[in-house]
Amino acid sequence: MTEPIPPLPADSVDKPWLRVLRDAAIIFGMTFVGGFAAGLVTGALYRSSPPLLVIGLVNLGAGIAGFAIVTCLTPRNRLRHLARVGFVVWIMSLLNLLLGPTNMVAWLFSSLVIAVMLLVGLAIGTAIKPANKEG
Questions:
Q1: Three-class SS string for the chain?
Q2: Which residues constitute the domain of residue 33?
Q3: Per-residue pLDDT reduced to its tens digit, 49-104
Q4: Residue 98 counted as domain residue
Q5: d(Cα 8, Cα 134) in Å, to the nearest integer?
Q6: What's the confidence (pLDDT) of residue 132?
Q7: Which one, of 93, 83, 77, lies nearest residue 25 by Cα?
Q8: Is residue 3 included in any domain, yes or no?
């Protein structure tokens, strides 16, 4: 049986943005690794440019899983915390705009996709680990 993920140190309780950055890094990392792996596998299979639909669906699934994990790590005030995390993930996705694989309209639209991932991940995470009664 696996051990639970330990909480952040007590001094970070007064610094909620530390938790937000940690959780945004979890989600950003999961979508990055998922998209990278999907690109490698589909690129090897198709021997041309990988199908963007596959990469998009893998990123969607990885983002939902990431938000579900973050939900489980968040004992209370989940929606407010996840909204902050979602905003930071969206700002971090500016990297896609700067590196060129997307344009401004797609980046703006991605806020809706992140919102959907957030809500589905919140529902899954809450089903796995209900919130504390205090918050």
A1: CCCCCCCCCHHHCCCHHHHHHHHHHHHHHHHHHHHHHHHHHHHHHHCCCCCHHHHHHHHHHHHHHHHHHHHHHCCCCHHHHHHHHHHHHHHHCHHHHHHCCCCHHHHHHHHHHHHHHHHHHHHHHHHHCCCCCCC
A2: 15-128
A3: 667 888 889 999 999 999 999 999 998 899 999 999 999 999 999 988 888 778 89
A4: yes
A5: 19
A6: 77
A7: 93
A8: no
Residues 6+ apart with CB under 8 A from 39: 50, 55
Domain assignment present for 109: yes
The verdict on residue 5 lying in a domain is no
Report how many domains make up the chain: 1
Both tokens of 59, joined, read 């990123």
Distance separating alpha carbons of residues 67 and 119, to the nearest angstrom: 8
Q: Are 93 and 104 in contact (CB under 8 A)?
A: no
